[in-house]
Amino acid sequence: MKKLKREQIRYKEKVDAIAPKSKTLSGCIRAFIAGGLICMLGQAIGDVGSLLFSFSETDRASFTSIALIFIGALLTGVGVYDNIGAWAGAGSIVPITGFSNSIVSPAMEFKREGLVMGVGSKLFTVAGPVLVYGISVSILIGLLTCLFS
Amino acid sequence: MSSFSDYLIVFICGGAICVIGQLLISLTRLTASRILVLFVSLGAVLTAIGIYAPFAEFAKAGATVPLTGFGYSLAKGAMEGAKESGILGAFTGGIKATAGGIAAAVFFGYLCAVIFTPKTKK
Fold it and tell me: What is the model's pTM?
């Protein structure tokens, strides 16, 4: 490793002490607010849906997911979600709207490569791995449940 | 309908899960796609060991809207399927429970990607 001059080391220590911590803290606060608000939106959608269609508990969950996925996809399409994401960080990635964003965003970007290998395949750039691991883990859990019950 | 305190709990729990994601991004430099994969798997595993179901009962949308909730639905469906119809249920249960979300993601995702063109990044 290259030796740093004493002044450079001192400078680095100063920067390390100040910069990343405050960035992490403000990022966490923003993620908390944005993520919390999106979850509240989900709760409100579920409430309205239950009121209008008197859903069962599972139908309510599906309805909320579908509505949030729609909102996430639409906001990504019109370019608003990227702006939200720039401010909210993980607050916009972790909720299911972020999953929807991760589907639309690359697909839109690669549209010029055609509707099949562009849009069709890039839809699953991030959603693919998520589904592969999510579904595989759930099947393993199901099989373990078979074994132990 | 949910009360005001329900919404407060939803806000706090949902926000807290996102903070965990933010910490992972800031401190370990995990990419967004790894975070999503991790959260889905984590949600499923926490469901399997019996932690996530009571948490979802308490936090409602604060637990089901983050992607850990997707893992929760998958695992819950697979476990219920396995109890009802054995090995076949272990395979069908997870996707049955999340079919609406997956179908919507594919359908709306495709529509929006075709209709809209990306904005130039500033």
Answer: 0.88
